[in-house]
Structures are given as C-alpha cells and as structure tokens.
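>> Question from a student workshop board

For tomorrow's exercise we were told to take the sequence and the ligand below, predict the bound structure, and bring the output to class. My setup keeps failing. Could a helper post the expected result so I can at least see what it should look like? The ligand is iron/sulfur cluster.
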Amino acid sequence: MRYRPDYYDEFVCIADKCKNTCCAQWEIDVDEVSLERFMKHPDIAEHVEDGCIVLKEDGNCPFLNEKGLCKMILKYGEDMLCDVCTDHPRYISEIGDDEFIGVGISCEAACDLILNRKEQFKLIPPLELPLVDRVFECEDSLTELLDSLSPDEASPADHAKLLKTFEILEPEWKLMLDKVIKQQVSAEARDSFIDSNLMKFKNLMGYFLLRHDNDFYLAAISSRIIAELCVANKMTMEDVARMYSAEIEYSDINCDLL
Ligand code: SF4
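>> Workshop helper replied:
Here is what the output should look like for this input. Compare the format with yours to find the bug.
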C-alpha cells in the first residue's frame, strides 16, 4: 500500500519566489533515460559530465536563470527534467511492503507548509500512527514526552560538537553550531523554546516520525537540535529546520551517524 500525508497534495513549488532554491549546491545525478534525452540537445549536454549536471562556480545549477526559473523548463517544458529535479522535494520511504511518500523540509515551501499546519496531518488512505498521536495529544508540554520516551543527558553544546564532526555542506551551518557552543545554550532554554512553539514542534516531530519509520529517538534529537540552533542564532524555526534537513536528513552518512 502507498500512503501519503494529506498536505502532500497541497505542495506547490514557489519557483522564482523561493529564497533558498534547491537548484544550487546539490549534486544532480541524471538518471539513464534522461541522460539519453539530454545528449540529443547540445545546449544541455554541454553541462553534463560523468552522468551529473556540472554546477557553476557559485554552486548554482547552470540552468537556473537570474529570475530563479529553470531554463530547461522554459525552453523544453517540464518533461525534459531528469528524475531528481522532477521528484524533489518529494521522497519515498519503504517500510516492509508499504511505501510512505511525502515532501521534505529542506524545501522552503514544503517546510512552511508542514510547520505551520494548525492540526495533525492524516494519512491517505487512513492508517493509525500511535506515536504521532501521542505527540499531537500533548497539551502544554511536548518536552515531557520527549524526556520520558527519549531521555538525553547530552547538553546542547555536546550536540553541536558532535554535529561538527559530521560531513558539513554549508560553511554557515558550522557557524550556527559554533554559536550553540559559544553561547552555552542551556537545556532549559531549549525546552522552553520547544514548549512555546508547541504546534510547530508537534508538526516537526510528526514529519520526522513519518519520514523515518517512527524513529522516536531521531525525531526527538532532531527537534532538540533545531530548537538549540534557533535559540543561539535567533533564526526562524523554518530557516533552521530547512538547513538541518539539508545538512543531516539528506546526507545518508550524517543520518546514520546521528
Ligand atoms: S526549494 Fe522548494 S520551493 Fe524552492 S525552488 Fe526548490 S522545490 Fe521550489
């Protein structure tokens, strides 16, 4: 059976209005069928090497125009895109015989859509998710549930020091981690931040649980780290969650290390 959260159908790429386009920094592996198509068009083929689109020196995709739109779509239509570009930010998690599809929060539009929901998401077709239900049942304090199901003795600085040993994509990420260490963010300040942004953290926990096979530990530590970074860097939760997803969730190595 294939399941999707109800918000999946609401996702729309905001293209030229996106401040953090996904058409930069990532390695774009071209699938074989698209590669064959690309090779028939010299203006596309000249930007492909070893099965990947070669990014420009500034890290942007060569097909991203100054208005934040894709030149390939403008010239040839969406059907020209390779699978990676067509699918992003959609993902599939396979659990047993079932598939769970969703949209990832490394995308600005998906992150806004998920974090700012006013009620618990539902799966289509319906399926019970007891851990997600427990998260959304919390009335005043989510941190009590996190502490009871996933106690964590490590300090915020310990978390940041650990993440600094992981693969780092963006230099800004390292600076954000440094601030958590330098400012000695306390666990109390972090927990207070979580509980005063209760609905957003419920949505965040729900997203992580859905995407990562109900892994409560991963959902809890990810939420704590995002809160610690928000407190230290005075950034919006949307911006920090988006960066966290790009740095950790989208790196198999980092996710396994965590
Ligand atoms: S990050 Fe999301 S909203 Fe922005 S360009 Fe990519 S898919 Fe569209």
